[in-house]
């Protein structure tokens, strides 16, 4: 499936690849791309067959941030128009961040501005060693406002203060050091290692992966008290008693591949 600026590919095992397809402008955002991406992500979130969403990009760059022609139009916007326009981008970031299944950013090249926001919104980020990152907004007299909740959450307050204010670029190694990406991969083996990583994820229980993401969101920054202890005990009891949990343990003990149901079937 193609939506002009987006290419959507599905595999039988639940992997969906969503590829930014504007290589001629380094996959920069405009209002149409933002609307298309938001709509597709929201639709995929409701699809029980989706297990992992991989966000990719065609060409040399992952995303250069805002499209120049879009920026020219914005220069003549009123405050209200700018506000409504920014809410659309904020909606895209929220839709990606709140996606119910595991999301993986596959960063093969440069990610600037809003492109960094997309990376920060994903659960996992894999980067080529040639990837470059930059929060470049202050060079234009702007700020990375709507992406800031996700970027600060990923890289921390002090790193955000540095890179928001300096607009200096940093490489994949530094991105890993500050928490923006999880794994840096050599250029010559990038595609093969990314595919291997995704396939290994898909060998896990689909409902367990879904529940694991919910678990992190539930326990993060909460005090370790009686309520939290009882809630986490209840969650592991639920998964142990589930069809998927029983199948996973049985397969492990019997030294055979597990026969997973999809997450929706488990819920039913």
From TrEMBL:
Molecular function per GO: isomerase activity
InterPro entries tied to this protein: ClpP/crotonase-like_dom_sf, Enoyl-CoA_hydra/iso, Enoyl-CoA_hydra_C, Enoyl-CoA_Hydratase/Isomerase
Keywords, alphabetical: Isomerase
UniProt KW Nucleotidyltransferase keyword: no
Pfam families: ECH_1
Gene Ontology BP terms: isoprenoid catabolic process
Signal peptide start-end: none
Family indicated by similarity: Belongs to the enoyl-CoA hydratase/isomerase family.
Name assigned to this protein: Enoyl-CoA hydratase/isomerase family protein
Species per Swiss-Prot/TrEMBL record: Aliikangiella marina
